[in-house]
Amino acid sequence: MKKVVSVLTAIMLMISSFSFLAFAEYDEDYDFDSYQWSQEELDAGFRFDCVCLIVKPEYSLREFTADDFCPELADRAVWENPHTEEDNKGCVIFDSLYIVYCKEPSEENVIKLYLALRDNQYVGHCQLNFYSEIFPIYPKSPSDIPIYDGYYSPSLSGDGESIEKNMLYNPYYQKYYNELLENSFQLFNKFGKYMGDIDFIEYYTENYLSDVPSYSTLIFKTPENTDLTVREYNESVLKKCVKDENILYVGDTVYAAVVKINYDDSEALCGTEELVYIADAFFTRYEGMLCVAGTYSVGDVVTIAGVDYGTDVHENRVTAADARCVLRYSAGLFNPEPSKRFYFCADMNFDNEINSADARLILRASAGLEETYEYCYSYDIYWCDYFPDILLSE
Predict the structure, then answer these.
(1) Residue 170's pLDDT is what?
(2) Which residues pair with residue 260 across a beta bridge?
(3) Cis peptide before 338, with omega less than 30 degrees from 0?
(4) 239 Cβ contact list (under 8 Å, min separation 6)
(5) Which residue has the higher pLDDT, 211 or 16?
(6) Of residues 85 and 70, which shows the higher confidence score?
(7) Mapping DSSP to helix (H, G, I), strand (E, B) and coil, where does residue 268 land?
(8) 259, 247 in Cβ contact below 8 A?
(9) Which of the pair, 213 or 16, is modelled with greater confidence?
(10) Half-sphere exposure of 367 (CA within 13 A, CB side)
(11) What is d(CA 50, CA 83) in angstroms, rounded to the nearest whole number?
(12) What is the DSSP letter of 149?
């Protein structure tokens, strides 16, 4: 988790390499690992007791107290060891860093304190103390709102070529679309209630949509009163903004859907009051970055004993055992749950179905009579999907 705090600081400072990790040496209350997070704080995604800030350079040599920042809300302001570095002209850059604590810690009060500090004449940068992901609290511009990614298009290599393969129609997504949408919806709810009155949809359509189709997740407002089921409500909203043929998956459990859109859909999207957020299809977040390429041979669906698929470069081989496994699945005799690898790699002919035809091709590949392709992820962690309760990997 300390790495997350370092990332937060890098984003805040932009030009500085200082990490809030150094705070732990000077202020025991701030120490990230020893702090006892309440369930309410974990749900919100940030601590309720303090805000971190950097004083503007012109005030960096001055000592501040809580009265200088926000006497109505602040209990104390703790000065931390400054970070210094030289700019490209050899001049020393001096950053004066403070942790400002709430008089009465709560979600409401820490946000009030943060907003007050953000506009304080002495403050250059300030930020809440987030738990894992970083998101804006009442951003001043829609450009401050994150665009999360979904990794549904791995590189497919073989037969002397390499292409990006869109897997959104694969049986894996057909089966798990509700769980994946739940993850996206849960992530949006972390920051959605703090977006304020910014028109994010207009910003998104103007800056991210083009003539090329975009596969996107749409997040809808949660209705206050409705007799419709979740799916019925989602379908009623989709009729206002997306053509029927461009709807891929409609959530049955959360107010979200995956669709194919382009710039021509901008007017309809902007005119849909219930639409509140757009990002990549099945967008998610990742709690780390493993610098290991994930490679999976199409047709290789049987887990190899002794290989840790979370950390090791994968040994890939296609055998008759893979063909038998796919044949058993097509006959309803094998349940591969939960295995993303099976659904991706079992579709040998890339027709978005898994049946006996794939089993025959896998058997031929095991005998060297068919070309073998490989899915490759630039980082191994992109292979994993974070569901609310389980980690889908192998």
Answers:
(1) 96
(2) 215
(3) yes
(4) none
(5) 211
(6) 70
(7) helix
(8) yes
(9) 213
(10) 7
(11) 20
(12) B
Give me the mean pLDDT over the 287-315 stretch.
63
Torsion angles phi and psi, residue 384, rounded to 5: -90, 145
Say how far apart CA 234 and CA 223 lie, in whole Å: 10
Strand order, beta sheet including 123-130: 74-86, 92-102, 46-55, 123-130
Q: Burial level of 349, CB count in 10 A (0-12/13-18/19+)?
A: middle
Give me the sheet containing 294-297, strands edge to edge: 161-164, 155-158, 374-377, 294-297
Per-residue burial over 252-283, b = 16 or more CB atoms within 10 Å of its CB, e = otherwise: eebbbbbbbbebebbeebbebebbbbbbbbbb
pLDDT in tens, 233-273: 999 999 999 999 999 999 999 999 999 999 999 999 999 99
pLDDT at site 299: 93
Task: Report the alpha-carbon distance of residue 139 to residue 118 in Å, rounded.
Answer: 11
Q: 264 and 213 in contact (C-beta within 8 Å)?
A: no
Element (H, E) at 327: helix 320-330
Cα 190 to the center of its chain, rounded Å: 11
Reported in sequence order, the residue ranges of the chain that DSSP labels E, i.e. its strands, are: 46-55, 74-86, 92-102, 123-130, 155-158, 161-164, 214-220, 247-250, 256-261, 275-280, 294-297, 374-377, 385-386, 391-392
Token pair listed for 88: 């490209």
pLDDT score recorded for residue 165: 92
**Cα–Cα distances in Å, from 165 out to 142, 242, 347, 372, 375?**
31, 24, 13, 15, 9
